């Protein structure tokens, strides 16, 4: 039997609450299938760990994670630790340390999912946002000069390497070509006269290899408008790290809410483990109440199943989530229901059992 070794990092706040449900779903899928199973190893890293040990993860953490087939993460961040310390010390360290340069974030309105937009058909919101996940505005480079002085200067450097930009754009063209979809590059070359001019140039260069792919270039401000007014304009979308971060929260808002939005951080070459997580944070405003929506974590579990080649199971998990939302009787408060996190997770499992 094939065994997949999964590192589970619940993290902080509702991260710990939702991850349990994602794991529950993965375990049940493996039992129902019978050809494979998961072996989960839990890591206590996060803000509580930081208070005790002064680090967000152990010094050899990256080395220890290396041997796993994938990482399943909840969320990181707590009001009592500065975000740049907690996130740089754990989440971003893993994304960059394992060269997970592709961040796949589906913005797809599933059946039964709430949508705040009027006059939009379900099929109108069906895109895959491919966010550059290793460099760009998130390079972490910069300087802080004359701190606290009158002439204080802060530099935050965006890094756009030829290799980094080309590989993410090529990944996007490959997907658009394979799936016969249009490809949109979200840019901002009118103001960012180095990084995004270069980005546009590479987008055009790589595009010559894919004459069959229909493309458009849209500035990020206009993209924000069109996500709301004409979401059907977008199928495959490729963009930089920061733009992708912001646009996918907007994507979550139009396609079911933060409780449903999932993402996969991929190292496509599989040289390092990839990481699956909801795109939401630790939600300190609702943590500990048992009401967080676990469906984003469940969707990210379905992305993991896809990644391991069990697309039929990935689709079944999403199908179970859709059934649950169409039925409407077991939903968390963010979706207008009264169910707890655990009840929602259990209901997904029951539906999977019924399908199998
Ligand atoms: P957030 O995503 O945690 O919360 C935004 C809003 O969405 C809140 O009102 C929250 O209650 C709601 N929400 C989010 N997930 C939900 C769910 N599953 N069910 C129901 N409601 C949900 O964003 P934030 O408040 O900006 O960040 C809180 C902390 O999380 C910060 O420390 C931030 O840096 C961190 N963060 C971490 C990640 C991550 O680990 N991947 C992502 C985003 C933010
Ligand atoms: C996300 C989050 C992270 C990001 C933060 C917490 C560093 O917002 O995964 O979307 O900006 O990538
Ligand atoms: Mn984000």
Please describe what this structure looks like:
This protein is α/β, with parallel strands linked by helices and 356 residues long. The protein has helices at 14-33, 47-53, 61-65, 83-89, 91-97, 162-179, 195-207, 220-229, 241-254, 295-307, 311-327, 341-355; strands spanning 2-11, 36-42, 70-75, 102-108, 126-132, 136-145, 153-159, 183-187, 215-219, 236-239, 262-266, 274-278. The chain folds into two domains: 1-106 and 260-356, Isopropylmalate Dehydrogenase (3-Layer(aba) Sandwich), CATH 3.40.718.10; 115-134 and 162-255, Protein-Tyrosine Phosphatase, Chain A. 41% of the residues lie in helices and 22% in strands. The strands form two sheets. Strands 2-1-3-12-11-4-5-10-8-9 form a ten-stranded mixed sheet, with helices on both faces. The chain has a two-stranded antiparallel sheet with strand order 6-7. α6 crosses α7, α10 runs antiparallel to α11 (311-327) and α11 crosses α12. It is globular, with a radius of gyration of 20 Å. The chain binds nicotinamide-adenine-dinucleotide, 3-isopropylmalic acid and manganese (II) ion. 3-isopropylmalic acid binds next to α5. The site of 3-isopropylmalic acid has 6 residues, from α5.
């Amino acid at each position: 039997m094939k065994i997949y070794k999964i590192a589970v990092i619940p993290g902080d706040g509702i991260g710990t609450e939702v991850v349990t449900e994602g794991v529950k779903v993965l375990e049940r899928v493996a039992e129902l299938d019978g050809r494979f199973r998961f072996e989960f190893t839990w890591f206590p890293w996060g803000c509580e760990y930081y208070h005790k040990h002064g680090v967000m993860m152990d010094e050899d953490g990256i080395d220890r994670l290396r041997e796993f087939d994938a990482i399943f993460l909840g969320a990181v961040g707590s009001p009592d630790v500065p975000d740049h310390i907690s996130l740089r010390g754990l989440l971003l360290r893993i994304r960059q340390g394992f060269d997970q340069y592709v961040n796949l974030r589906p913005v797809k309105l599933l059946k039964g999912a709430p949508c705040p937009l009027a006059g939009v058909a379900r099929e109108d919101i069906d895109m895959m946002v491919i966010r550059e996940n290793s460099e760009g505005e998130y390079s972490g480079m910069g300087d802080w000069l004359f701190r606290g002085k009158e002439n204080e200067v802060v530099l935050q450097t965006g890094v756009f390497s030829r290799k980094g930009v080309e590989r993410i754009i090529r990944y996007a063209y490959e997907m658009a070509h394979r799936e016969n979809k249009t490809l949109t590059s979200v840019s901002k070359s009118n103001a960012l006269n180095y990084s995004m001019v270069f980005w546009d140039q590479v987008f055009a260069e790589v595009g010559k290899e894919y004459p069959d792919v229909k493309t458009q270039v849209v500035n990020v401000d206009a993209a924000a408008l069109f996500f709301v007014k004409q979401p059907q304009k977008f199928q495959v979308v490729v963009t930089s790290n920061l733009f992708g971060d912001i646009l996918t929260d907007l994507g979550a808002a139009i396609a079911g809410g933060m409780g449903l939005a999932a993402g996969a951080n991929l190292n496509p070459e599989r040289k390092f483990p990839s990481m699956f997580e909801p795109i939401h944070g630790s939600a300190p405003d609702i943590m500990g109440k048992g009401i967080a929506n676990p469906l984003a974590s469940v969707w990210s579990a379905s992305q993991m199943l896809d990644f391991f080649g069990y697309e039929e199971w990935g689709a079944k998990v999403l199908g179970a989530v859709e059934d649950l939302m169409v039925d409407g009787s077991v939903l968390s408060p963010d979706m207008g229901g009264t169910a707890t996190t655990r009840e929602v997770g259990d209901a997904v499992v029951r539906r999977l059992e019924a399908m199998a």
